[in-house]
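Project standup — Tuesday

K.O.: blocked on the structure for the chain from last sprint. Re-posting the sequence here as requested.
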Amino acid sequence: MNSFNCIANPFLGLPQDLIIAKSDDKTLTVAQFCYAIGQVKEFCYRNKLRQGMCIALDMPLSLEWQLLFWGFIDSGIIVLCLNQRLPQSQKLQQAQDISANLYITDFNWQISSQSLSTEWNLNNKATIIFTSGSSGNPKPALHTLANHYYSALGSNENINLDMGDKWSLSLPLHHVGGIAILFRCLLSGAITVIGQDDNITHYSFVPTQLMDFMAKHNFKMPKAILLGGATIAESLLDKAMEYKLPIYTTYGCTEMSSQICTTSHNASLEDLKTAGQLLKYREVKISDDGEILVRGKTLFCGYLQIGGGAGVLQKSYHTQEWFCTSDYGYLDSYNRLVVLGRKDNLIISGGENICPEEIEKIILDKFGLTAIIVAVKNKRFGQRPVAFVDGVFDKDLLIKQLSAILPKYKIPDEFYTLPANNNLKISRYELAQKASKYN
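H.V.: unblocked you, prediction finished:
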């Protein structure tokens, strides 16, 4: 084993009585984690699970989930993080798609004499996370231990996270943002918290979660709120600044193991309107046509070939290779990244380029309504935009108000009610299909 690619096991560097996970009135110490990891390693030995094999973990967010996750990571087993909101048939299909060696819904804890690994090989394959599928079918992304490790290191150098701090697991663990919280807390000795706690110091929020948080009014001031994952309304940032909340806006993606750029401590409102500056261990540049390109130590291995198993990639990526994000953006004069929208969302109508995110942001900022703009086929213009709007709205009034701001070709032809959605990201692909049936 090449020691250059190894780090000391983080669990062995923490005080054994240190609490590092909490759920309601239950807590787990480092010693309890180490003991549980030993049991998982013994389980792997009994079931002939070898390094590089894959298990599908189909369990709800819990302390037990975290124990199993770290146990398999320590054993060199790849963890497929399944979305608990998916129907059982879809979860089974995803496990089948990547040829998981074992499907786990429960675990029988037994006495074990196995001990932790003293070193972690950063080259080990660690997780499979399906992309959100917001622009099409979800794709299984394979990450190494190094990807998650350097992602957490870069984040912790920007957002102060100390031993004993508490980071709420407010993002699901089938999402790269949820996995990132686990690694950040382990490397700093902070506590991951499931559920309610009066002393949370750190949150990861999408905009709707921040709205709900501020609506409580009686919250205790945290040390940091990492905000991203969707378009952020200026009115939301204004309100957060009024409350003097420690907001860090961010831009990231599954393929780069969560964050790429993030604002810094005490960022101004103008800073927060951007995605901030590049974090350590990442690189970013803008292509000639305005696409955001990224690379670095957090860049994933690649997408797995469906049916090929946990080690067969459609295309592999390396740290020195630029990954095309399909996002449009630019670096401003302060080297802050400004994200404009998705390249694959671009609507071309009668030869004119329409960026859906521009229209969505105007509807959100000016009218306080969440909207998703998608394209439908049109005989005359090729494509035309239609809108799905969340909440009660007056179509004629919206068209009149938008006409004072946007050129006519950017005004959506139709306005539909946005269907109820329980996911962090709404699938534009599904909405476009729905809109095609309406037309």
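K.O.: great, moving the ticket to review. The longest helix spans residues 30-46. The chain has a mean pLDDT of 92.
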